[in-house]
């Protein structure tokens, strides 16, 4: 027998006979036989074992952060102190799978693990340069230790989910919330309302009013904006990007380039500036030509391509707000119930009429004053009294003519006001339909915001999960009821599956249905894998549409080898 073999045999005899000194053995649920035995002894004999809770695997978007967290506490729920948590030998690896390929960490920025009272965590940026929509990520954490009397090594933790598309919702919300400005007070006059309604002597105009209405409609009929990444800055008035699909040469002319964030991070130019696109050429790398920014763009600036409707709304929104105050005045003058958007226009037109009438009246008064003065002079000479009388008669005739002219002018002015008021009423009648569309968009935006804030529930609660059995390989098993009818008393939305256990190392596909027996309708499915009997799957994301109150939920499962079971519960809000 070799010396090496004899040494190992002696060590084994010592371990089984009780002679072996095991004081240096650490508790580790995933370690060797002795470390696992130490873990079992700790739990059986009352030594305060370490407890841990892993955060869910979030669905992330390119260019956003994903937060991953482990809570560490004892059997009584007390968090471990930061000094009692050891991450010096821990490893944290981020892997990527693209287009169904194998997971790999090659070329992927790696996260940094930090610790605090009762926590270890990382906040990882999924940069657009390294991650694409539909990529899969897998974050693996091993080797975290906690010591409270004895040293414990925590099990391995794994997070995995997919990277979602970011442009559709984020770009439009950014556009609405970041870019539309509102005046600080309601009565700020930025432009002349005469450009919209016209003055007394003008032909009534509707050009800008119609443009405003068209822009409101375009907000809901068009894609509002798209965030792009600049691949190369060619000059102060042009750059290249590969983020715009083929639209035909010139397809984006008269749109706008908007810089929402300067790469310097200090809010300097060109942040907040819009510049009109003067040319767009398709190709392997599309080229934009635009009006010059005050400071040239860089490849690191955050840039959007913005529909003209958005830019026009930024110009028109202050105008709409500032004419709100004169609604009552116009209604009193015209007798029409006008929308506040066009009320100020009518008031301005009427003010112009009154002003001109006052000017005519003042001119008539001045002429009369001059005549009186002349009459006084003539009266001094008795020989020309008759001439003075004739002059006075001529003056009176002239005054009558002026008064008649003033009446005619006023009638003409009032006719113009009536014409403008009729035009305002016509435009006002178009507004309710637009307001209905705006209300619908507000409902959509509110739903998006509400989707970010909710109270998470689970079913079954304070009870074992429900066992769902599969059929042969990739054959769904029989229906298994998860939530009985008349159980969840308000509208709810399933957000994930809590997989308590799986019967074998295998790949599973779980399908959820709603409805009574014989009328089941599929509402979602998900796939997950158990890779080790020491590591269970945990939370799996599966988000459904809102489900009516008291609806029955059932499930089926299949696996790659067949005849496997899973124990599940539902997370919902």
Please give a structural write-up.
It is built from 10 helices and 28 strands. It is of the alpha+beta class and 573 residues long. The protein has 4 domains: 51-163, Immunoglobulin-like (Sandwich), CATH 2.60.40; 194-322, Elongation Factor Tu (Ef-tu), domain 3, CATH 2.40.30; 332-433; 457-572, Sandwich (Jelly Rolls), CATH 2.60.120. A hairpin with a 3-residue loop joins strand 10 and strand 11. Helix 5 crosses helix 6. It is extended and about 125 Å long. The relative contact order is 0.08.
Helices, strands, pairings?
Blueprint: H1 3-17, E1 27-28, H2 33-45, E2 51-54, E3 60-61, E4 64-73, E5 85-86, E6 91-97, E7 114-116, E8 119-126, E9 136-142, E10 145-147, E11 151-153, E12 157-164, H3 167-179, H4 194-197, H5 207-221, E13 225-228, E14 232-235, E15 238-241, E16 256-261, E17 274-281, E18 286-290, E19 302-306, H6 308-322, H7 327-334, H8 340-379, H9 385-428, H10 431-450, E20 457-459, E21 466-469, E22 480-483, E23 494-502, E24 506-514, E25 521-530, E26 538-541, E27 553-559, E28 565-572
Parallel strand pairs: 1-11, 3-12
Antiparallel strand pairs: 2-4, 4-8, 5-10, 6-9, 7-8, 9-12, 10-11, 13-19, 14-15, 15-18, 16-17, 16-19, 17-18, 20-28, 21-28, 22-27, 23-26, 23-28, 24-25, 24-27
Helix pairs in contact: 5-6, 5-10, 6-8, 7-8, 8-9
């Amino acid at each position: 027998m070799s010396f090496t073999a004899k040494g190992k045999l002696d060590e084994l005899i010592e371990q089984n006979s009780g002679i072996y000194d095991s004081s240096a053995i650490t508790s580790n649920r995933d370690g060797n036989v002795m470390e696992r035995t130490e873990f079992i002894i700790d739990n059986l004999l009352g030594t305060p074992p370490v407890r841990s809770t892993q955060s869910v695997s979030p669905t992330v978007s390119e260019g956003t952060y994903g937060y991953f967290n482990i809570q560490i506490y004892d059997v009584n729920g007390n968090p471990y102190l930061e000094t009692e948590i050891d991450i010096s030998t821990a490893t944290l690896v981020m892997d990527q799978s693209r287009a169904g390929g194998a997971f790999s960490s090659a070329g992927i920025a790696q996260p940094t693990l930090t610790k605090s009272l009762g926590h270890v965590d990382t906040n990882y940026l999924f940069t657009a340069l390294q991650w694409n929509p539909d990529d899969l990520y897998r974050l693996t954490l091993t080797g975290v230790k906690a010591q409270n009397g004895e040293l414990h090594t925590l099990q391995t933790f794994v997070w995995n989910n997919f990277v979602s598309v970011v442009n559709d919702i984020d770009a439009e919300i950014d556009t609405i919330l970041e870019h539309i400005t509102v005046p600080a007070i309601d009565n700020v006059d930025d432009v002349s309302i005469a450009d919209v309604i016209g003055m007394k002597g003008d032909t009534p105009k509707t050009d800008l009013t119609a443009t405003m209405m068209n822009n409101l409609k375009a907000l809901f009929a068009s894609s509002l904006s798209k965030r792009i990444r600049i691949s190369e800055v060619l000059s102060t008035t042009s750059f290249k990007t590969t983020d715009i699909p083929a639209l035909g040469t010139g397809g984006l002319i008269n749109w706008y380039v908007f810089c929402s964030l300067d790469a310097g991070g200090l809010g300097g130019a060109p942040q907040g500036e819009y510049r009109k696109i003067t040319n767009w050429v398709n190709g392997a790398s599309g080229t934009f030509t635009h009006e010059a920014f005050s400071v040239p763009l860089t490849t690191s600036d955050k840039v959007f391509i913005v529909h003209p409707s958005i830019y026009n709304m930024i110009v028109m929104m202050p105008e709409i707000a500032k004419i709100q105050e004169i609604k009552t005045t116009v209604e009193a003058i015209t007798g029409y119930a006008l929308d506040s958007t066009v009320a100020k226009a009518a008031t301005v037109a009427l003010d112009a009429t009154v002003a001109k009438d006052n000017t005519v009246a003042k001119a008539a008064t001045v002429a009369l004053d001059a005549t009186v003065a002349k009459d006084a002079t003539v009266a001094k000479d008795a020989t020309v009294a008759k001439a003075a009388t004739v002059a006075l008669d001529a003056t009176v005739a002239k005054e009558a003519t002026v008064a008649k002219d003033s009446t005619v002018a006023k009638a003409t002015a009032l006719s113009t006001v009536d014409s403008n008021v009729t035009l305002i009423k016509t435009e006002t009648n178009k507004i309710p339909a637009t307001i209905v569309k705006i209300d619908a968009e507000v409902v959509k935006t509110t739903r998006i915001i509400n989707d970010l804030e909710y109270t998470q529930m689970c079913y079954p609660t304070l009870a074992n999960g429900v066992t769902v059995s599969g059929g042969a390989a990739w054959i769904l098993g029989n229906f298994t009821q998860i939530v009985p009818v008349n159980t969840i008393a308000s509208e709810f939305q399933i957000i994930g599956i809590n997989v308590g256990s799986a019967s074998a190392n295998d790949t599973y596909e779980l399908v959820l249905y709603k409805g009574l027996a014989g009328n089941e309708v599929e509402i979602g499915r998900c796939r997950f894998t158990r890779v080790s009997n020491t590591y269970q799957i945990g939370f799996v994301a599966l988000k459904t549409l809102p489900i009516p109150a008291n609806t029955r939920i059932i499930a089926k499962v299949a696996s790659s080898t067949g005849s496997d079971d899973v124990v599940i519960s539902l997370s919902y809000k």
